[in-house]
Amino acid sequence: MNPEEFEIFITCVPGLENELLNEVQELGFKKTIIASGGIHFFGGWHDVWRANFYLRGATKVLVRFASFRAIHLSQLDKRSRKLEWGKLLNFKKPFKVETVCRKSKIYHSKAASQRISKAISDKLYSKEDPNSRIMVKARIASDLCTISLDSSGEGLHKRGYKIATGKAPIRETLAALFLRKMKFDGSQVVYDPMCGSGTIVIEAAEIALGLPAGRNRTFAFMELPSFKKDEYEKLAKINQKKIKLKFYGSDRDNGAIQNSIKNSQKANVGTSCDFKTKSISNATPPTQEPGIILVNPPYGKRVGSRKNLFALYRSLGQTLSEKFVGWHVGIITSDTGLAKATELKFLDISSAVDNGGTKVKLYETKINHPKI
Ligand SMILES: C[S@@+](CC[C@H](N)C(=O)[O-])C[C@H]1O[C@@H](n2cnc3c(N)ncnc32)[C@H](O)[C@@H]1O
After folding, report:
1. DSSP string across 238-266
2. Which residues neighbour 362 within 8 Å (Cβ) at sequence distance 6 or greater?
3. Which residues fall within 8 angstroms of residue 96, CB to CB, at 6 or more apart?
4. Residue whose CA is closest, atom 14 of ligand 1?
5. Minimal CB count within 10 Å: which of 109, 194, 239, 267?
6. Which atom of ligand 1 is nearest to the CA of 304?
7. Pocket of ligand 1 contains residue 249 by CB under 6 Å
8. pLDDT tens digits, the chain, 372 residues: what are they?
9. How far apart are CA 276 and CA 198, in angstroms?
10. Sign of the dihedral defined by the CA atoms of residues 323, 327, 331, 336, in that order
C-alpha cells in the first residue's frame, strides 16, 4: 500500500450512485469511477477524512489495503501474513474482521476471517474484539481477495444528533440523496407533511446552512496510526451560512413533532426549522413561493396495515393536488399500489433502493393547475 495514495471506495445504497457521484465531484474529488454500490477514486488520508466528514449520501468510506489471489485457506493465511499491517493498524489495539465470499473456492467466510485475524494478531500483538470499531473487511470474489479497512466506523447515516426516533425513520443518507435527486440545492423551501422524527427537514436545513454531515460525530480513522488531529482540524471546517429560509415539517402525532423539535435543536438547526402537529388533510403550503415536498408516508410492511393506508395515500394525493400547485413533490414508498392511490401523475419513478431492509422508490411529480 502506497502511504501517499491508495484506492478509496465510497459506498452508498445501490441505485443512487449517480447522486453520490455528483456529490463526490462537487467536493472536488477527481478521476472518480462509478461502480455498483459506490464510487472509486485514488487519494490519500486527507481525502478519506474529508469524505467521511462532508459527504451526506455516503454509507461508508473504505480504504483499499491489498488485493491478491487466494484459492485455498492456507494461501489466504500465507498472503495475509505478508501484508504490512503495521502501516494500517495500531500495535496491540483491538480490531475485527468480516469476510464475504462469492463464487470462490474459499467459501467459508468465518474460516477466512479467522485466518486474516490470526495474521493480524500475530503481527501486531493485538486481539480481535467484536466490539472494536476498527473493521477489516475482506471480499473474496472469483478467488480474488480484496482487503479494505472501514474508515467510518458506525454507518455515516448516524449524524450524531438523533436523540429521539419514531417509527420507521428514513436514513439520513437516503434523505440527502433523494433531496439531491430532486435538485435541492439549499435555496428552495422543503416541507415534509409526515415528518416523524424530522430527518428530511433537518437534512435540508443542514444542507442550506452549509453544516457538514459529520460535524457531530467521530470516525474509526481517528484511531489509526495515520491520523493527525491538527491536520484533520484544518480541513474539517464548519462555515455556517446565514439564511432566512426555513424548513417545514408536520405530523399528526404530537410525540413525533416533539421528537423533531428536540432533534433539530440537538443538530443546531432548530431556528431554521418549523414543526407543527397537523394531519395531512389540514396541511397547507408553509410559504407562498412553491418549493419541494419530500415525504415518506407509512407503508404496509413497517407501520400500520396496508388496507388502512389506501385512504391515507388518497388523502395525501388530494391535499397535494388541491393545495400545493407549483410544488415539486417526491413520495418515498415501498408500495406501488399505495403510490397509485394518490392518483398523482408521476413524472419520474426511481429504481428501488434499500432503506433499512425495505426497498423503496421515489415517486416524483410537479403539481400542476387543475384543468378547468
Ligand atoms: C414512515 S414515518 C415518517 C418517518 C420520517 N421520515 C422520519 O425519518 O422519522 C410516517 C409518519 O407519518 C405520520 N402520519 C401517519 N398518518 C398521518 C396523517 N394522516 N397525517 C399526518 N401524518 C401522518 C406518522 O405519524 C409517521 O410519523
Report:
1. --PPP----EEEEES-HHHHHHHHHHHHH
2. 178, 181, 182, 330, 331, 332, 348, 349, 350
3. 117, 128, 129, 130, 132, 134, 135, 136
4. 194
5. 239
6. 15
7. no
8. 556 899 999 999 999 999 999 999 999 999 999 999 999 999 999 999 999 999 999 999 999 999 999 999 999 999 999 999 999 999 999 999 999 999 999 999 999 999 999 999 999 999 999 999 999 999 999 999 999 999 999 999 999 988 877 778 899 999 999 999 999 999 999 999 999 999 999 999 999 999 999 999 999 999 999 999 999 999 999 999 999 999 999 999 999 999 999 999 999 999 999 999 999 999 999 999 999 999 999 986 555 577 789 999 999 999 999 999 999 999 999 999 999 999 999 999 999 999 988 999 999 999 987 654
9. 11
10. positive
Residue 88 DSSP class: T
Mutate to test the pocket of ligand 1, among 177, 202, 251 (most ligand atoms within 8 A of CB): 251
Query: Cα(277)–Cα(15) distance, rounded to whole angstroms?
Result: 33
Q: Which amino acid is at 2?
A: N
Task: Please choose, from the candidates 73, 117, 76, 71, the residue with its C-alpha nearest in 3D space to the C-alpha of residue 96.
Answer: 117
d(CA 164, CA 183): 28
Q: Could you identify the atom of ligand 1 that is nearest to the CA of residue 303?
A: 1
Q: How many whole angstroms from its chain centre is CA 176?
A: 7
Show the cell assigned to 303.
407501520
pLDDT, one tens digit per residue, over 194-209 is: 999 999 999 999 999 9
Ligand 1: nearest atom to the Cα of 253: 25
Measured CA angle at 31 (ends 30, 34), to 5 deg: 110
